[in-house]
């Protein structure tokens, strides 16, 4: 049979650095766990001969809860005078607590007021469920509409891709044509002046305008011939 054995009680707040030597332990610990342990024995109100049989390891304030006396039920804080605390006290200790059970019931006037307030502020459950049902139907309709739009757009996707590719090829051809025109203007400027001009040079700008005018006249003459 295993006999219960008593160990020294230790709380985290008792900061005794056991890794130190004895001198540092007894001089620098704050507070010393040994002093706290002896103080607990004194507070337990047990005879010294019976202290070795106390194996519960409970602090004194918890031992008083197991065997409460009249002093235990004396109010010592504002919280203990509240109705909720007295209800809990009576529910745990009964008539020993000295609480009058007649004061623990809800006042009929208070209950009536709370019932009227609940009816005025809270909606019936049927109304809440109906509103949730309508919200779900509206959400489902929105989802279905979005799915329908996605499907219709997916059907148009090949046509849109084809248009995009055509526009991309046109843009590429236009950029190539512009690059060819720019090179042609640069070559003409080199033939006229004997060297390549900077596109920002006034001579180059004037030459470019002359070429544009010449192209416009050529287009007009071509239109007259086609008529």
UniProtKB/TrEMBL annotation:
Compartment(s) where it occurs, according to its Swiss-Prot or TrEMBL record: Mitochondrion; Nucleus
Phylogenetic lineage: Eukaryota, Metazoa, Spiralia, Lophotrochozoa, Platyhelminthes
Keyword annotations: Cell cycle, Coiled coil, Mitochondrion, Nucleus, Ribonucleoprotein, Ribosomal protein
Family: Belongs to the mitochondrion-specific ribosomal protein mL64 family.
InterPro entries tied to this protein: Ribosomal_mL64, Ribosomal_mL64_sf
A Pfam family: CR6_interact
GO cellular component, one term: ribonucleoprotein complex
Record protein name field: Large ribosomal subunit protein mL64
Task of the protein: Acts as a negative regulator of G1 to S cell cycle phase progression by inhibiting cyclin-dependent kinases. Inhibitory effects are additive with GADD45 proteins but also occur in the absence of GADD45 proteins. Acts as a repressor of the orphan nuclear receptor NR4A1 by inhibiting AB domain-mediated transcriptional activity. May be involved in the hormone-mediated regulation of NR4A1 transcriptional activity. May play a role in mitochondrial protein synthesis.
Organism the protein comes from: Clonorchis sinensis
Coiled-coil regions listed: 125-227
């Amino acid at each position: 049979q295993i006999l219960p054995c008593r160990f020294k009680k230790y709380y985290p707040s008792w900061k005794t650095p056991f890794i130190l030597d004895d001198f540092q332990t007894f001089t620098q610990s704050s507070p010393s766990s040994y002093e706290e342990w002896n103080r607990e024995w004194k507070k337990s109100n047990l005879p010294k001969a019976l202290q070795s049989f106390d194996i519960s390891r409970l602090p004194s304030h918890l031992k008083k809860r197991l065997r409460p006396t009249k002093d235990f039920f004396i109010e010592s804080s504002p919280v203990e005078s509240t109705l909720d605390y007295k209800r809990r006290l009576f529910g745990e200790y009964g008539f020993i607590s000295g609480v009058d059970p007649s004061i623990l019931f809800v006042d009929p006037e208070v209950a009536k007021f709370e019932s009227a307030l609940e009816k005025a502020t809270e909606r019936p459950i049927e109304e809440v469920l109906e509103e949730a049902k309508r919200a779900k139907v509206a959400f489902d309709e929105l989802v279905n509409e979005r799915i329908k739009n996605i499907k219709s757009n997916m059907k148009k996707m090949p046509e849109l891709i084809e248009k995009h590719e055509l526009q991309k090829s046109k843009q590429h051809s236009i950029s190539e044509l512009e690059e060819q025109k720019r090179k042609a203007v640069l070559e003409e400027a080199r033939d006229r002046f004997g060297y390549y001009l900077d596109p920002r040079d006034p001579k180059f700008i004037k030459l470019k305008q002359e070429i544009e005018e010449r192209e416009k006249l050529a287009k007009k003459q071509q239109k007259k011939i086609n008529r």
